[in-house]
Structure to design on (324 residues):
């Protein structure tokens, strides 16, 4: 009898909902981008998904440092010589990046790439001590001169290079969500690798988002119900190799030019993806104590950190909401 009632309720729900979930996935920005939305009309929903994926492609073409034709690669070649005019979007992203550099006393620094460019995680290559020593002094966000009103940027250190890998995906997710919302979509989730942002809920309940277990493939360390929130996770398992027992991964401590130690993953919740993205990388570098301090200082920001022993640490507001 119970099952019959259930079946009936489900049938009513789907018959009265007038729509369907649409989902698409693609490799963009060196990661898996996915868009999932509830659409009353399949053709309309599909059109918005195509728009969103095209937007990711456009931003990738602009901000990919490894593509010599990108605007970012051009800046890396030319901005040492003179104040170089660039796109409003790169200016906006760099401005936000510098904001987090200031807030974190340089733990987040897009000029990490001065040294970061010498790592190749796929090939298992890291810079030797000499190269590291030469270029680590070129990691310095103070040497990135941004003129917002003129839309120019200049690098004041001769070897300085920038990479927006710690913030660009978040910016792209926000752009995607803006497109969805202006098209009237009320329930959706957009993800780019470890960055996700959720609009609305699943009708009668929140969406459950899992934070990956940093050491057990396919398992979650935590699951949290989320509505209208961005979440970003930075982990030492995304891009790495191990040599002589040392884990070389893609999040660098700007002070040393070496992979930041202390955490296995850092997740940040906030309203916008650009902030969650930059902050997850930032907190990963800062570690448990300084990372939680920063998260607790910022209104609307929560964090879940997993330390080197696999222990979970929560920011103040999450602790309060999970304590019975
Ligand atoms: P992903 O989703 O690619 O794992 P994360 O948000 O974890 O992204 O950020 C990692 C990326 O951030 C690196 O691949 C690199 O491009 C960039 N990055 C690494 N270290 C720093 C740093 N100290 N400050 C700013 N960006 C960084
Ligand atoms: Mg990030």
């Amino acid at each position: 009898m119970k099952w019959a009632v259930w079946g009936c309720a489900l049938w009513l729900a789907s018959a009265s909902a007038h729509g369907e979930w649409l989902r698409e996935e693609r490799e963009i920005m060196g990661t898996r981008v996915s868009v999932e939305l509830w659409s009353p009309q399949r053709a309309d929903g599909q059109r918005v998904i195509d728009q969103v994926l095209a937007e990711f492609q456009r931003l990738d073409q602009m901000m990919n440092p490894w593509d010599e034709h990108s605007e970012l690669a051009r800046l890396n070649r030319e901005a040492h010589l003179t104040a170089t005019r660039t796109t409003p979007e790169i200016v906006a992203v760099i401005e936000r990046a510098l904001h987090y550099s200031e807030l974190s006393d340089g733990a987040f620094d897009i000029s990490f790439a001065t040294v970061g460019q010498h790592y190749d995680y796929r090939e298992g290559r890291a810079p030797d001590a000499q190269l590291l020593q030469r270029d680590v002094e070129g990691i310095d966000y103070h040497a990135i001169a941004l003129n917002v009103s003129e839309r120019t940027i200049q690098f004041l250190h001769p070897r300085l290079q920038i990479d927006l890998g710690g913030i660009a995906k978040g910016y792209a997710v926000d752009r995607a969500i803006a497109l969805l919302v202006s098209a009237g979509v009320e329930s959706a989730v957009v993800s780019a690798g470890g960055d996700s942002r959720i609009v609305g809920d699943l009708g009668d309940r929140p969406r459950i988002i899992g934070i990956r277990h940093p050491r057990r493939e396919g398992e979650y360390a935590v699951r949290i119900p989320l509505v209208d929130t961005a979440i970003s996770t930075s982990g030492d398992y995304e891009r790495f190799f191990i040599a002589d027992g040392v884990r070389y991964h893609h999040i660098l401590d700007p002070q040393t030019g070496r992979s930041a130690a202390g955490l296995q993953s850092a997740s940040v919740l906030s309203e916008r993806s650009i902030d969650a993205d930059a902050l997850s990388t930032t907190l990963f570098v800062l570690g448990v104590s300084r990372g939680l301090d920063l998260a607790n200082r910022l209104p609307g920001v929560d964090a879940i950190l997993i330390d080197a022993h696999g222990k979970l640490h929560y920011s103040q507001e999450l602790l309060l909401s999970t304590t019975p």
In short: Residues 166, 232, 234, 277-278, 280-281 surround magnesium ion (ligand 2) (CB under 6 Å). The longest strand covers residues 20-28.
